[in-house]
Amino acid sequence: MNDLERAFRLYARPALLVIIGLIGMGFVAMTPESAGVLDQMLMPIKRAIFYGALAVSCGGFLWLCWSVYLEYRWARGDLDGGCHNCGGPMRHLSGRWGNYSKCLMCGSKREGWH
């Protein structure tokens, strides 16, 4: 696995959430210029959509910060993960054939929880 695959695995989903939130906030601009009658009636809905998009964007940013922190600890050797392939942190999942662990860094899988 190279660095590009690791970066995509760690940062693609959080960055996508941030981008979706920013696009949502951009579409529902709450500016004084939108002072028409219809805009005033729809303002509570627009406000809810705006703050929902803001929450999605902030959640994605926090997830992105957590991924940066995990990679920083992993690069320094402080992260003592359970992955037998790269030493990265594991995510514990329940699948069709029982419990298994999947590495957040390289994507390798192990049977059971480690």
TrEMBL record:
Keywords of the record: Membrane, Transmembrane, Transmembrane helix
Keyword Transmembrane helix: yes
Residues spanning the membrane: 12-29, 49-69
Name of the protein described by the UniProt record: Uncharacterized protein
Record lineage: Bacteria, Pseudomonadati, Pseudomonadota, Gammaproteobacteria, Pseudomonadales
